[in-house]
Specification:
The structure holds 2 protein chains of 2 kinds. Chain A is mostly beta strands. Helix content of chain A is about 0%, strand content about 50%. The chains are: A mainly beta, B mainly alpha. Chain A: One of its GO terms (cellular component) is TRAPPIII protein complex.
């Protein structure tokens, strides 16, 4: 092996105040946690001549062994740690470490050494170290005075750490030296969320689909993914397989996976729908699914409530470095001041392509006035499923806070998941209309 | 920066009044021109000498098929150690397909009457399989290693059948860590002194490298073959696991290790390794559980348990506690390099850069022949970069010192 020595550490930019040479040097380096030494093993079989040099030995806690040089053992992976690399990346909410070394490189003593370390971002200033009230009496020549800063990165912005050191030379002259280190805090995860609402005659159901992608350069161990529902909704975590002993209690739709381990106390541990370890490699993603139902007491108002809650994600990286993010609250679309509501009250069990079918809609007048309603279909908005019949017709008068049932003849043009959509309802009396409705999604099958 | 020679570097690094223990290097022309001579040179890490001698010996022994291959193997190992990968590849390619007829005893009935099987040394097969690793093609190396491993498993299956045919038995799980069927070399003692004379004669060497399944005629041989095959299987598996860890494929690595652990439940080294992988991943809880197994087997005060708990403390951010633990291990066992190394790192993490540098330098000075390891050198260089104004010069000195001991 050649001597590939550690690469140069970037020294903090030094902006000296005066031209006189300084007696001390300040070095700053961002560090990651230590890592394990990994070495590809060379092993020889017992009767071969080089066997004693490359034995197939235990992956031990390394002890000095004759010719077992360079941490080689059968596995090449033992408890040897290596000096941490300088990190390029700092990620939001993870703790980063910065080592500051103040070294007296001169031949004289310096006295009254005080240090101030500040971290600045666009929006905030943190005081990390301030020894101005209690300066160090003396720093001998050739000696160090060091700090290890551990700080959580709170905002995805450019940051800089500035270290200002004041000291006094033997002749009484005070000097200042200022060093800074710039870095950028990036977001470790990208989150894409889709919200689906399914309205049926009974309570509506809302599904939240969240795709979490690892945007860092290292794998992330997902310790905890938890959705905290708002007060109005009951949430069901569809990323667990229920193991109550009933096999038909399996409530999974798409086999989305998660190994959520926060219920360790439960005797029957719930299996996550992801197999194996809960970790994301670089650039990999996972999708999580949650189901919401409005709580009983909020059933009437539920259609107006938009706040579902928020997602709380915590992860760990190398040597347990912790990161934690809480999303903003997820809001679903609700139509404010909705006066006309359409829900499906009857729909056939199976729908086959190119075979007409009938559904029944219940049209509700949510206002306090009588309405005279008319239904209009917009052909260009109807994609997979067409209305079979008149493209507009009168529904008639509907009293306030009551509803009317309307049958609709429909014709599916294509198989697969299709939307029944593209129609609107308007009130002739008030002139208000409900806007283009997206009624429901159906699965159109091929007939065998 | 002045031009530095090795001599100057040595005088700068070591106390000039006490001449350091120099590595003894035997020159190539001083050794016996035989496999023994090769072993001597290899033992001193004199890989250039090894490669040169193999060139001479391959001429001398060119008519002896079996020994030629052993020499070839040593040559390729030497080239790999010298990082001369394209030459190593050439050598490997010249050998062609290791399963071709030319490497079977049956092809030479005049020279080897009644001998069956292949005389290719097993390590050579492994080297050929893993060689893409050295060229950066990790997936290809994995593919080859998995294939080789499944061949091994197949052979193991056949041997087990033979054992049953002979009326014998083999253990399903092996609870004795030093059993003949353990994962590792049974007789390898940790404080082994290198012996210049090998325990095996050339005949023995050749006898055991043949394809063992073919020539199994009785229960004893079958059992020995099983033992050998298990070790081969674990040798390959460890390399596979190593590559998986390297590529951060922790799940695959852990799968293999867990399977091994089921078969060797009292092997606490496996358990420690599993724990360390969990630490690498970040799953501290699972790491602790794995380390609990280690404690159960070795006791809470063993070096292994202590080292593991030191690592857990690092994960929890308790650098002082970790430092104290590694100090304790080192105080009880001054030969423990990894404890010393980790201790130095913990000095660093507790803001004592000077002490970290001092610890490593003292350790090297104490016994450079044994203690100048690549990891230590790298770690010390990293510390120099941070702590010294003349870090370039210090690193150069260190590098020259390392060279002078490693040739």
């Amino acid at each position: 092996m050649t001597n590939k020595l550690q690469s140069n550490i970037s020294k903090g930019k030094q902006s000296t105040v005066v031209e006189d040479p300084h007696l001390i040097t300040v070095r700053m380096i961002k560090l990651s946690t230590p890592d394990f030494f990994l070495n590809f093993p060379m092993t020889c079989e017992e009767p071969e001549p080089l066997h004693k040099i490359f034995p197939h030995s235990r992956p031990s806690t390394y002890q000095k062994v004759g010719e077992m040089a360079e941490g080689q053992c059968a596995l090449g992976f033992s408890d040897f740690l290596i000096f941490p690399e300088e990190t390029e990346d700092v990620y939001l909410s993870e703790e980063f470490r910065c080592y500051i070394s103040i070294f007296n490189h001169s031949t004289q003593y310096v006295s009254k050494l005080s240090v101030k370390v500040e971290m600045r971002s666009l929006t905030q200033i943190y005081n990390l170290v301030d020894s101005t009230n209690k300066p160090l009496d003396k720093l001998a020549p050739g000696k160090h005075h060091d700090y290890l800063i551990q700080q959580e990165a709170k905002k995805p912005e450019d940051h800089s750490i500035t270290c200002t050191v004041w000291y006094q030379k033997l002749d009484g002259e005070t000097k200042t030296i200022k060093t800074s280190l710039n870095f950028r805090v990036s977001s470790p995860l990208s989150l894409e969320t889709k919200i689906h609402t399914i309205k049926t005659l009974s309570l509506e159901k809302v599904f939240l689909e969240s795709r979490i992608e690892n945007k860092t350069n290292h794998p992330l161990f997902l310790e905890n993914i938890k959705f905290e529902p708002s007060a109005y909704f009951e949430m069901e975590d569809l990323n667990q397989i229920k193991n109550d002993g009933n096999d038909n209690d399996d409530d999974n739709d798409n086999g989305n996976d998660n190994d959520n381990d926060d219920d360790k106390q439960k005797q029957k541990k719930q299996d996550g729908t992801f197999s194996g370890l809960s970790y994301l490699q670089k650039n990999n993603h996972r999708q999580y699914l949650f189901k919401f139902k409005p709580k009983e007491k909020f059933a009437a108002k539920s259609r107006q409530i938009s706040n579902l809650g928020y997602l709380s994600i915590s992860w760990r990286t190398l040597f347990g470095n912790l990161g934690h993010l809480q999303t903003r609250e997820f809001l679903r679309d609700v139509e404010a001041n909705q006066v006309i509501e359409v829900i499906v009250s009857k729909i056939p069990e199976k729908i086959y392509v190119e075979k007409p079918f009938e559904i029944e809609c219940e049209i509700q007048n949510l206002s306090n006035q009588e309405m005279d309603l008319k239904m209009i279909f917009f052909k260009e908005k109807m994609k997979g499923i067409m209305i079979s019949g008149l493209s507009s017709f009168d529904i008639g008068r509907v009293q306030p806070q009551s509803s009317v049932k309307v049958p609709l003849q429909l014709f599916p043009l294509a198989p697969g998941l299709q939307n029944i959509t593209g129609f609107g309802i308007s009130d002739i009396i008030s002139g208000r209309s409900s806007g283009i409705k997206d009624l429901i999604s159906v699965f159109v099958e091929r007939e065998n | 920066m002045q031009y530095l020679t090795q001599e100057k570097a040595l005088s700068l690094f070591f106390d000039p009044t006490i001449p350091p223990q120099r590595a003894t290097f035997t020159r190539m022309d001083e050794v016996e021109k035989s496999l023994e001579g090769l072993k001597l040179l290899a033992n001193e890490n004199n890989w250039k000498g090894v490669v040169h001698l193999t060139l001479i010996l391959s001429e001398t022994y060119k008519d002896d098929l079996e020994i030629s291959l052993q020499i070839k193997l040593i040559q390729i190992i030497g080239l790999i150690k010298l990082e001369l990968y394209s030459r190593a590849q050439d050598s490997l390619q010249k050998l062609g397909n290791l399963n071709s007829k030319q490497y079977f005893y049956e092809t030479y009935p005049a020279k080897f009457p009644n001998r069956k099987g292949s005389f290719v040394p097993f390590t050579l097969r492994v080297l050929q399989a893993e060689f893409p690793y050295f060229q950066g093609d990790y997936d290809k190396a994995l593919e080859n290693l998995y294939t080789l491993h499944s061949n091994c498993i197949q052979e193991i299956g056949e041997i087990k059948k033979k054992i049953e045919d002979f009326g014998g038995k083999y253990p399903e799980t092996i609870t004795e860590i030093n059993s003949p069927n353990s994962l590792y070399d049974q007789n390898f003692m940790i404080q082994n002194n290198f012996e210049t004379k090998s325990n095996y004669s050339i005949e023995d060497i050749i006898e055991l490298t043949i394809n063992t399944v073919g020539n199994v005629d009785d229960l004893e041989t079958a059992k020995e073959s099983l033992s050998l095959l298990e070790k081969r299987s674990s040798m390959i598996l460890f390399k596979i696991i190593n590559i998986h860890i390297f590529q951060n494929d922790f799940e695959l690595a852990l799968n293999h290790l867990n399977n091994l652990y089921l078969k060797f439940p009292s092997d606490h080294f496996l358990s420690s390794t599993i724990g360390r992988i969990y630490l690498k991943l970040g799953d501290i809880e699972s790491a602790k559980k794995a380390f609990e197994f280690v404690e159960k087997i070795t006791g809470a005060t063993s070096i292994f348990s202590k080292s593991n708990s030191g690592l857990v403390q690092i994960a929890l951010g308790n650098y002082r506690q970790a430092r104290d633990i590694f100090q304790e291990i080192y105080d009880n066992d001054p030969n423990n390099i990894s404890a010393l190394n980790n201790l130095a790192l913990m000095h660093f993490y507790t803001c004592n850069l000077e002490k970290a540098i001092f610890t490593l330098e003292t350790f090297i000075r104490k016994d450079p022949v044994q203690n100048l390891q690549k990891v230590i050198v790298n770690n010390l260089s990293g510390l120099y970069d941070l702590g010294c104004d003349n870090s370039e010069e210090k690193k150069k000195v260190l590098s020259l010192v390392y060279d002078s001991y490693k040739l």
